[in-house]
Design a protein that fits this description.
heterodimer; A: 379 residues; alpha/beta; OB fold (Dihydrolipoamide Acetyltransferase, E2P); Rossmann fold; four-stranded antiparallel beta sheet; 12 helices; B: 342 residues; 2 domains; seven-stranded mixed beta sheet; five-stranded mixed beta sheet; 14 strands; Acetoin dehydrogenase (chain A); AB_hydrolase_fold (chain A)
Chain lengths: 379, 342
C-alpha cells in the first residue's frame, strides 16, 4: 500500500450497527484535515455522530456521497498527502474495494460479540466481554441510569490491545434489579465479584460518573484488584449535581420527555435521537428497574446533592490515575476536577458535556489507549 | 432476552401477571381446553390457537376457567368480577363474536365508572383475534377496533409485534379500566427479541418504527410490518418515511401524529379495518383540522374495500392492504401537490 494514504470508512457505532447513512460531508475535497477533525456526519437508527478523521492530510476524494447508506467498513473517502498523485488515489480506491470484497463479512463477525448474562453471587449480570491480548484486562463501569451500550463507541476500539469487559450494573440494563442499599459499596462489590467470576485478579478500571465513584470504591475496598483508574466525570468529587435531570432520567415515561432528559448528558443536543430515548425507556419499563434506580438515587444523591465523598480515596491512591471531564458538563459540574490531587493526569475537554466517551470518541479512545499503554510499560 | 413468538409473548405476559397478582383470572371458550368434556384430558387446547396453553396446569381450574359457549354470560360475568375485585382476562376468541355480548361491553363494563359516580373500577381485559389473511371468511376475519374505539369508556390496544404485545398486555392487565386487546391472528408466529422480565408499555404513546423526512405513514397492528417493508424499499429509492404505530386507538397519541405530519408534510394511513368510519378516517380528520397548513399533498388512505372479507384466497389477497399498495400510495403523495410551491 502506498504511504500516507488513509481510507475513511463507515464507522461502527455499537453492536447493532450494520450500516449507516453518510448524512453530510463537513469538509470538501482539497481541504486540509488533522487527525481527530470531524469530517462527516453519520446517521444510524440510534445516533447521529460526527466521524473524525483517523489521519492528517488532505481530503483528496469523497468516494461516498451525502445521503448514501452504506455497510460498516465501506469506503467513504481518502485522506492523503498533497504529493500523492491522482492515479495513486484511484489505485488505492480500487485495491481497497477489491480487498473488502475478498474479506466479506469476517471482520464484522469478529467484533460482534453479543452480551451474555452470568450469575455473580446474588446478581445476574449482563456482560459483554471482548478482545484478547497480553495486557491486563480493562473493566468499564457505566454511570447512574446507563448501561453497557454507553461504551458502544469505545469498547471495540479499546479491545484491540486487551480484553475489555463492559457490564450492566445491578439495577441497570439487562442485569438483575436487586441493588441492596444502593450504595457504591454494594455496586463495587458486584464489580469485584464479576472480576472474580471472570478469573481476572487485577484489572484497569474505567468508570464514568457514578461508575467513577464505584471505581474508587473498588480501589478502596479491593486495592489488589485495581491496576489503574480512568475516571470520566466521576461522582463523589463535589456536592453539586443536577438532581432534576437525574430524576427525569429515572421517571420519564414518554419518549419525548426521556429524550429531553438525556439531552442534558451531552453538549451537542442533536446526538440524542428518539431511538436512543426509546432504547432507554425499554430498559426503564422492566419491572423493578425504576425502583432500583430510586434506591441508588436515595443512597448517592439524597436531597438534591451528592452524598458520597470519594476524595479521600483519590488522595490516597498510589496507582496511575487519569481523569476526563467535559467543560460543559450539565450533570456533574467540571468544578469537581479542581480538587483532584496533582498526581492525576487531567483532560478537561472544551465544548463537551457529561459523556466525553460518546461526544469526543476518537480523542477519548486515543488518550485512554495511551494511558493504558504507558502504565503497561511501567508496570 | 430471547426470541419469542407473538403467541409466546402473550402467554408469558399472562403467566407473569398471574404469578404476580392472584386476582388475575382467565375465562373463555376453550382457554383451558378439554376440561369438563368426557375425554378427561386437561390442557389440551389452550385456546383455539394455543395462546393460553400451559396456564391451566400452573394456575389450576379456579383461575383458568373454561366457559359455556355463551359470550353474553361469561363477558358479563367478567365485567361483574372486575367491578367486584378481580382482574379478569376474558377471551372472546374471534372479535367477530362481539355481537353476542355487546351490551355487556358497551353499556355495562365501559360505563360502570361513569354511572356509579366514579366509585367503580373495572379492571377487565377482553382479548380477541382480529384480521383477514387467514382464509377464515367473512364471519371470522373482521378488524373491529374502530367499533370499540367509538365507545367511550373503553381503551383499545392493537399491538404490532411480539415485544409490543407483551408490554401492552401487562399494561392492560394492570390498568383499572376495561381494555379491549386485539391480536392479529396472522401474527402469532412472528418472532422477535422479547425480554424475559415483565415490562409495561404505556397507552397513548405512539412508537416510531422508522424516522424519515418525506412522508408519515401511520399504520395499525399488522399493517406496521407492511409499512416498514414499504418504507425500507422506498428508502432505497430516495424517499424517506416515518412509520408511526399508534399502539392504542384509544387513547390516541394525537400529538405525535401531528408532530410527524408537521415534519414531513405528507400523510399515508394504513388501516385494515373496513374503510367507512375507520381509524384512517379518524386520523385524517384530526390532521385536516389541526395540521392542514402543513400538508403538501392530500392525505392518502390504504384501506380495504367496503365489503365483507372474501373467503377466496385470490380475492382475500386483493382485499388486503400490503407493502406494494403502501409503496404506491407514498409515491402518489410524493407526486401530488395541494398548492404550487414557489
Amino acid at each position: 500500500m502506498t504511504k500516507n494514504l488513509t481510507a475513511l470508512t463507515m464507522p461502527k457505532f455499537g453492536l447493532a450497527m450494520t450500516e449507516g447513512k453518510l448524512a453530510s460531508w463537513t469538509v470538501s475535497p482539497g481541504d486540509t484535515v488533522r487527525e481527530g477533525d470531524e469530517v462527516a456526519d453519520i446517521e444510524t437508527s440510534k445516533i447521529t455522530s460526527g466521524y473524525e478523521s483517523p489521519a492528517s492530510g488532505i481530503l483528496r476524494k469523497q468516494v461516498a456521497q451525502a445521503g448514501e447508506t452504506l455497510p460498516v467498513g465501506a469506503l467513504l473517502g481518502v485522506v492523503a498527502d498533497a504529493d500523492a498523485s491522482d492515479e495513486e488515489i484511484e489505485a488505492f480506491i480500487a485495491s481497497f474495494k477489491a480487498d473488502t470484497e475478498e474479506e466479506g463479512g469476517e471482520e464484522a463477525e469478529a467484533t460482534n460479540a453479543e452480551p451474555r448474562v452470568i450469575t455473580v453471587g446474588e446478581h445476574s449480570l449482563n456482560v459483554r466481554d471482548v478482545g484478547r491480548g497480553e495486557g491486563v484486562p480493562l473493566l468499564l463501569i457505566h454511570g447512574f441510569g446507563g448501561d453497557l451500550s454507553n461504551w458502544m463507541l469505545n469498547q471495540d476500539v479499546l479491545a484491540r490491545h486487551q480484553r475489555v469487559i463492559a457490564f450492566d450494573l445491578p439495577g441497570h440494563g439487562a442485569s438483575s434489579k436487586d441493588v441492596g442499599d444502593g450504595s457504591v459499596t454494594v455496586l463495587a462489590e458486584a464489580a469485584y465479584e464479576l472480576l472474580k467470576a471472570l478469573d481476572i485478579p487485577k484489572a484497569h478500571i474505567l468508570g464514568h460518573s457514578l461508575g467513577g465513584a464505584i471505581a474508587l470504591a473498588l480501589l478502596r475496598d479491593y486495592p489488589q484488584a485495581v491496576q489503574t483508574l480512568t475516571l470520566v466525570a466521576p461522582a463523589g468529587m463535589g456536592r453539586e449535581v443536577n438532581a432534576e435531570s437525574l430524576r427525569e432520567m429515572v421517571e420519564a415515561d414518554r419518549t419525548r420527555d426521556m429524550q429531553k432528559a438525556l439531552q442534558a448528558l451531552v453538549h451537542d443536543k442533536s446526538l440524542v435521537g428518539r431511538k436512543m430515548a426509546d432504547n432507554v425507556l425499554r430498559v426503564r419499563r422492566l419491572d423493578g428497574a425504576r425502583e432500583a434506580l430510586r434506591t441508588i438515587e436515595a443512597a448517592c444523591f439524597a436531597n438534591g446533592q451528592q452524598s458520597i465523598d470519594m476524595h479521600p480515596v483519590l488522595e490516597a491512591a498510589r496507582i496511575p490515575v487519569t481523569l476526563f471531564w467535559g467543560e460543559e458538563d450539565e450533570i456533574l459540574p467540571v468544578a469537581g476536577a479542581k480538587n483532584v490531587p496533582a498526581h492525576v493526569a487531567k483532560h478537561l475537554l472544551p465544548q463537551i458535556g457529561h459523556m466525553p466517551q460518546l461526544e469526543k470518541t476518537v480523542e477519548f479512545n486515543r488518550l485512554v489507549e495511551a494511558f493504558l499503554e504507558k502504565s503497561q510499560v511501567t508496570a | 432476552m430471547s426470541k419469542k413468538s407473538f403467541r409466546q409473548a402473550i402467554n408469558e405476559a399472562l403467566r407473569q401477571e398471574m404469578r404476580r397478582d392472584p386476582t388475575v383470572v382467565l375465562m373463555g371458550e376453550d382457554v383451558a381446553g378439554g376440561q369438563g368434556g368426557s375425554s378427561g384430558v386437561k390442557d389440551a387446547w389452550g385456546g383455539v390457537l394455543g395462546v393460553t396453553k400451559g396456564l391451566l396446569t400452573e394456575f389450576g381450574e379456579n383461575r383458568v376457567l373454561d366457559t359455556p359457549i355463551s359470550e353474553a354470560s361469561y363477558i358479563g360475568a367478567a365485567a361483574g368480577a372486575a367491578a367486584t375485585g378481580l382482574r379478569p382476562v376474558a377471551e372472546l376468541m374471534f372479535v367477530d363474536f362481539v355481537g353476542c355480548c355487546l351490551d355487556q361491553i358497551m353499556n355495562q363494563a365501559a360505563k360502570f365508572r361513569y354511572m356509579f359516580g366514579g366509585k367503580a373500577r373495572t379492571p377487565l381485559v377482553i382479548r380477541a383475534m382480529y384480521g383477514a389473511g387467514f382464509n377464515a371468511a367473512a364471519q371470522h376475519s373482521q378488524a373491529l377496533y374502530p367499533l370499540f374505539t367509538h365507545i367511550p369508556g373503553l381503551k383499545v390496544v392493537v399491538p404490532s409485534s411480539p415485544y409490543e404485545a407483551k408490554g401492552l398486555l401487562i399494561e392492560a392487565i394492570r390498568d383499572d379500566d376495561p381494555v379491549i386487546f386485539l391480536e392479529n391472528k396472522v401474527m402469532y408466529d412472528d418472532v422477535e427479541d422479547v425480554p424475559d422480565e415483565a415490562y409495561t408499555i404505556p397507552f397513548g404513546e405512539a412508537n416510531l418504527t422508522r424516522e424519515g423526512d418525506d412522508v408519515t405513514i401511520v399504520a395499525i397492528g399488522r399493517m406496521v410490518g407492511m409499512a416498514n417493508e414499504a418504507a425500507d424499499r422506498l428508502a432505497k429509492q430516495g424517499i424517506s418515511c416515518t412509520v408511526l404505530d399508534p399502539r392504542t386507538t384509544f387513547p390516541l397519541d394525537e400529538q405525535t401524529i401531528l408532530e410527524c405530519v408537521e415534519d414531513t408534510g405528507r400523510l399515508v394511513i394504513v388501516d385494515e379495518s373496513s374503510p367507512r368510519c375507520n381509524m384512517a378516517c379518524d386520523i385524517s380528520a384530526l390532521v385536516a383540522e389541526q395540521a392542514f397548513g402543513a400538508l403538501k399533498a392530500p392525505i392518502r388512505r390504504v384501506v380495504p374495500p367496503h365489503t365483507p372479507v372474501p373467503f377466496s384466497t385470490p380475492l382475500e389477497n386483493l382485499y388486503m392492504p400490503n407493502a406494494d399498495k403502501i409503496e404506491a400510495a407514498v409515491k402518489a403523495v410524493m407526486m401530488q401537490k395541494t398548492r404550487e410551491v414557489a
